[in-house]
Specification:
With about 325 residues, the protein is of the alpha/beta class. It has helices at about 5-10, 15-20, 30-40, 50-55, 75-85, 120-125, 155-165, 180-195, 215-225, 240-250, 270-275, 285-300; strands at about 60-65, 90-95, 110-115, 135, 145-150, 170-175, 205-210, 235, 260-265, 280, 305-310, 310-315. It folds into three domains: about 5-45, 434 Repressor (Amino-terminal Domain) (Orthogonal Bundle), CATH 1.10.260; about 55-150 and about 280-310, Rossmann fold (3-Layer(aba) Sandwich), CATH 3.40.50.2300; about 155-280, Response regulator (Rossmann fold, 3-Layer(aba) Sandwich). Helix 1 packs across helix 2 (about 15-20), helix 1 crosses helix 3 (about 30-40) and helix 7 (about 155-165) runs parallel beside helix 8.
């Protein structure tokens, strides 16, 4: 890790001169200041604001907590959060899982955005308070200091499955995410409700529990291919699992969509390349809105009514335009 002594050595100045520059003191010449700042940028050195925060007890930093580096949509959410935070003169810390709790104190950070299924509700309820607001992106929590910004999963999944039914699909499989998550529950409920309304039978043996990762979709498709008859369509609770399923079908000579249609949910970067029919979630906007609400709550403009984000279907060639009814 680059330190202040390293910067001083490269710049050919004293440690105190570098300290004066990074702390914004005016007792340094402009040419020296510019040289030191340029070297700091080149060597990726940033002042340690945490130490200052501990001394003053004040923080202008928010925390984003997430749990899964495998899913590319996190980057879009982070970009949205970062842009709003930067525009409002706040700093951003990003961390994952258990390490987050030690940063969720108002002498280190002044609020958190949480997208981590492993962070339990009871932990968030204990931490949240008037001086420490929280925004959650993956659930709704009834707490006067926690704002929920969640995707309206039910409506677009209903529209997607209804679109498959309207195209003539009658035999379905479903690959779900972690069964305790709110997103998976809502997406699966929409799937079952449309089939029930359409008088289409769904066998529980055609449900496969996944974990939102590509490998679990690949495994589900391999198990599905062991049966004597494939379903017409495999509906997946996210894109990663859908992409894994498509790869498994391709590896075994099963054609998509001629032999089986596949759909996802998220609209990750690879979905367009794979021609995957999916539900597009505006993840950049989701992060931006979450940061906006958090900073408003930090500033005392409390708003904790749940906010639902709408999503739209992207019909692509993993589903046939027209399929004869069975």
């Amino acid at each position: 890790m680059v330190g202040i002594k390293d910067i001083a050595k490269v710049a050919g100045v004293s440690v105190s001169t570098v300290s004066n520059v990074v702390n914004g003191k005016k007792n340094v010449g402009e040419s020296t200041r510019e040289r030191v700042m340029s070297i700091c940028k080149e060597m990726s050195y940033y002042p340690n604001s945490v130490g200052k925060t501990l001394k003053t007890g004040n923080s202008n930093t928010i925390l984003f907590n997430f749990s899964d580096f495998d899913r590319s949509f996190f980057l879009k959410i982070i970009n949205g959060i970062s842009d709003y935070v930067k525009d409002n003169d706040f700093d951003l810390i990003i961390c994952t899982e258990k390490s987050c709790e030690k940063y969720m104190r108002n002498n280190l950070t002044c609020g958190s955005i949480v997208l981590d299924k492993k962070m339990k509700d009871e932990v968030l309820n204990k931490i949240a308070g008037e001086d420490y607001p929280i925004v959650v992106l993956d659930r709704v929590i009834d707490n006067p200091y926690i704002k929920s910004v969640v995707v309206n999963n039910y409506a677009p999944m209903s529209e997607l499955v209804q679109g498959l039914v309207d195209r003539g699909y009658r035999r379905f499989g479903f690959v779900g995410g972690p069964e305790h998550t709110a997103d998976n529950k809502e997406r699966y409920r929409a799937f079952r409700d449309v089939l029930e309304t359409s008088n289409i039978d769904f066998q529980q043996k055609s449900y496969f529990a996944g974990d939102y990762r590509e490998k679990s979709g690949y495994t589900a498709a391999k198990i599905l291919m062991l049966s004597q008859e494939l379903p017409d369509a495999l509906v997946c609770a996210n894109d990663n699992m859908a992409i894994g399923a498509i790869k498994a079908f391709q590896d075994n000579g099963v054609r998509v969509p001629e032999d089986i249609a596949v759909t996802g949910f998220d609209n990750c970067d690879l979905a367009d390349h794979m021609g995957l029919t999916t539900v597009s979630i505006p993840n950049y906007e989701r992060g931006y809105i979450a940061a906006q609400y958090l900073i408003e709550n930090i500033r005392g403009n409390r708003n904790v009514e749940p906010f639902k984000i709408s999503a739209k279907i992207k019909w692509r060639n993993s589903v046939s335009v027209k399929k004869s009814k069975i």
